[in-house]
Design goal:
This protein has helices at 3-12, 91-97, 139-146, 182-211, 243-254, 272-275, 291-297, 320-326, 333-336, 341-360; strands at residues 31-32, 43-53, 67-77, 85-87, 104-105, 108-113, 122-128, 151-156, 163-165, 171-173, 231-241, 258-264, 281-285, 304-309, 378-380. With 382 residues, it is of the alpha/beta class.
Length: 382
Amino acid sequence: MSGVFAFALASALSLVHALPATAPATPEPPFQLVLPAPTGPERVGTVSLHLVDRSRPDPWVPTEPARELMVQIWYPASDVRGHPRAPWVTPGVGAVLNPPGSPVALPVTHAHTGAPVDRGRHPVIVYSPGMGQERTSSTALVEDLASRGYVVVTIDHPHDARVVEFPGGRLAQQALPVPTDPADMDRIVAKALAVRVTDTRFTLDRLAALDRGHNPDEERRPLPRGLAGALDLSRVGMVGHSLGGAAAAQTMFEDPRVKVGADLDGTVSGTVVEGGLDRPFLLLGAPGDDPSWTALWSRLRGPRHRLELARSGHMSFTDYQVLLPQARVPDLEPALGTIDGDRSIAVQRVYLRAYFDRYLLCRDSGLLDRPSARYPEMLFQP
């Protein structure tokens, strides 16, 4: 559950590792990687926004006078005809993760770009990725929640992520300092956590403006029909992987707008560890002991759940759980454990949906009350 481990792994888990040592004499068409299809009844739409916070300079590159973010909104769509499926990542990011000549092609999502939003007001879930990861790193989980009626907002944290592409093709490369010792790494993680909390709170501000009918996109690109008025910001949850999970906990501690939180295998830190939370929180991770979870657990005063996905690894809570085995990347057990990838994602989807349904929709399946014979991989921890 180590954030340091996630940071080190992020730079290593590029799909370029699927490249053979030598190119074949006759190139074959690239093998198409595939994400599991969402399980819900709703069709899914998506749109990206370029947000600029002029109240602060970029924390990692001080010469940039304003903090810029890319966020992506995933939502139930009323009609997807004429709206193409969105790529997993933008072209510029894809060229970094999977350079030209690779024997694999990056996946296409099941969401349709710019499709009109389904009627009604939908609860909102914010997603923050692991350190060094992009906003799309858990698309399989995000799309499934959107197919079940949620609006999910995924945040790119520029200069923390390996690369972020802004409109027009401009790239923001990772600019985290190189740690010199464990204490230095702790300082970098603490700063990254604080930056993510501020990024998230700013994003919530801009979502509120969007819901009132404003277009917060810096380039004022058209928004999907029906997006304004579709966000129920009285029902906001947050989930994150690794450092993103720590950001979910700390954002909840600092911002009462976040009513429900979930941490996917992330070591928690910050003032929330001592201060605790009085609202629902889920700790869901791979096997292993994390002292920070134990410390936070005793200070969770609201509904609390601690689950362990048997045979999983730290990166099992990302799309790499299914993509890297498809690409035949070797030696995956340290990152992904030994659990079957498709089964891992399927079980995670069921429990995340049950959790958010209970606390954001008041729709209780009872799945969180006790172990289930249908999902023996999910272990309940005291």
